[in-house]
Write a structure and sequence with these properties.
Elements: E1 9-17, E2 20-28, E3 34-39, H1 49-60, E4 63-68, H2 73-76, H3 79-82, H4 85-102, E5 110-115, H5 117-128, E6 133-139, E7 157-162, H6 166-178, E8 183-188, H7 200-215, H8 219-222
Parallel strand pairs: 3-4, 3-5, 5-6, 6-7, 7-8
Antiparallel strand pairs: 1-2, 2-4
C-alpha cells in the first residue's frame, strides 16, 4: 500500500496490465482527498512537462496524481499503437484497478486527465470502467476519437481547448453535443494546441484543479 505518511511522497511504480509492466510516477500529498490518473497524448510519456506542471498544481491542492506510460518502449515504436484507443483505454483501466488496490481508501475517488489521444482513451475508459470515475478533464483532446462512447459517460466532463486550435475546437464542439453528463467546454484565449503561449497552461491547471475539487472528493472529505 502506498501512503503519504504525513509528508508529500513520490514513488516510482510499475503497473502490471496483462503481460506488460508500465512505469509510472505516483505523487501522494500529505492529506490527499482524491486521485487523478493522467493519460498522455501521442509521442509523450510520464515525463511530459505539461502534464507534470498540471500534476504539481493538483498535488498542491491535495490531489494525488499518477503519470504513467500507456505503452512500453517496444510498443511506442509503432505509430499505430499511439492511435489505438482500444489499447490505450485498456491500459488506463489497468491503471485504475492498480490505484484502487494500492492507495488508501481506493484513492478516495478517481478522475482522469487526458491530453490529445490520451483524452479519447480516458473518455472511452470512463464509459466502460467497472470502477466509478468521478470526473474527467481533457486538455487539447481528441474526444471525436471516442465519439460512440460519449453518450454513455456519466462522470462530469470538462473539455479545455485552445481558442486558436481551430480543428480541435470544432471537433470538441461536436463531441460536447453528444455528452449527456454534467459538462463544460472551456476555450483558453489565444492558446494553440500545446498551450505554449504565456500563461495558458497555468489557466489549464487552474481549471482542472477546480473541476476535480468540485466533483471528485466526497462531501465528508471537505469537512
Amino acid at each position: 500500500m502506498y501512503e503519504a505518511r504525513g509528508v508529500n511522497a513520490t514513488y516510482d511504480v510499475s503497473i502490471q496490465v496483462g503481460d506488460i509492466a508500465l512505469p509510472g510516477i505516483l505523487n501522494i500529498p500529505a492529506s490527499f482527498r482524491c486521485t487523478v490518473i493522467f493519460a498522455h497524448g501521442s509521442g509523450s510519456s510520464r515525463f511530459s512537462g505539461r502534464n507534470k506542471f498540471v500534476a504539481e498544481e493538483l498535488n498542491r491542492a491535495g490531489i494525488a496524481t499518477l503519470l504513467f506510460d500507456l505503452l512500453n518502449d517496444e510498443e511506442a515504436v509503432f505509430r499505430k499503437n499511439v492511435f489505438d484507443i482500444d489499447l490505450l483505454s485498456e491500459r488506463l483501466l489497468g491503471a485504475t484497478r492498480w490505484v484502487k488496490q494500492n492507495l488508501p481508501e481506493g484513492g478516495k475517488g478517481i478522475g482522469y486527465f487526458g491530453a490529445s489521444t490520451g483524452a479519447a482513451a480516458a473518455l472511452k475508459a470512463a464509459s466502460v470502467s467497472p470502477i466509478p470515475i468521478g470526473a474527467i478533464v481533457s486538455r487539447g483532446g481528441r474526444p471525436d476519437m471516442a465519439m460512440e462512447y460519449l453518450p454513455k459517460i456519466t462522470a462530469p466532463t470538462l473539455l479545455i481547448v485552445g481558442s486558436r486550435d481551430y480543428q480541435v475546437v470544432e471537433l470538441s464542439e461536436m463531441a460536447y453535443e453528444r455528452l449527456n453528463c454534467t459538462k463544460k467546454l472551456e476555450l483558453v484565449r489565444n492558446a494553440t494546441h500545446l498551450f505554449e503561449e504565456e500563461g495558458t497552461l497555468e489557466l489549464v491547471a487552474e481549471s482542472a484543479k477546480k473541476w476535480f475539487l468540485e466533483y471528485l472528493p466526497t462531501k465528508k472529505l471537505y469537512n
